[in-house]
Amino acid sequence: MPNSGEPAGQRSAAGQDRSPGVHWVDAFAGIRLAQRRSVRGWTQVELAERLQAKRAAGTRMAAVEVARQLRTLVVQISCYESGRTRPRAGTIRLLAEALGVDVLDLLAADTVITLAVLRARLGLTQQQAAQQLGISRSLYALLEQGRRPVSEDETHALARVLQVSVAQVRAALPDPAGPGVEQAG
User: Which among 131, 139, 151, 178 could disulfide-bond with 135, CB atoms 3.0 to 4.6 Å apart, if both were Cys?
Assistant: First the structure.
């Protein structure tokens, strides 16, 4: 995998391929999961234990069931790291949380970071993000698509809701769609 050397969330959306139908989960990079796990000195079993604890938080389970889930998780983590399978969005979020990293750190280094990726990494729908911003879902969708300019106040509000810096929001903003539309700010 190429490594841009840029910290997570700093890769710009401007001028990048924004092909519709590509989901951010497809950018998951198993090698980065393995690297983050290794940096902590954890085995796949230790990561599986932490992941299982996050999944089972607040539930009571028999020891046999916990052991069965751990065996399954170790196999799954091995498959994720080797690229044989890709975890679902919720599992990527749990893996990142277990490792103490941002979801962006588990995506390929050349992943284009868009507003949609910043939102989805938190598990937010467009409706939920819009509600936190105090705008309609359709207006929020226009912002994500670059079909409406984003004001400076909106940029700061987006940074708060998406839990990133203002610079990361600016880098994730798409180029305005169509002639005559200028980026506010």
Answer: 139
Look at residue 18 and give its three-state secondary structure: coil
Q: List C-alpha distances in Å: 81 to 8, 9, 72.
A: 19, 21, 14
CATH classification code of 8-23+113-178? 1.10.260.40
Question: pTM of this prediction?
Answer: 0.74
CATH code matching the domain that covers 29-106, chosen among 2.30.110, 3.30.420, 1.10.3470, 1.10.260: 1.10.260
pLDDT tens digits for range 107-135: 999 988 999 999 989 989 999 999 999 99
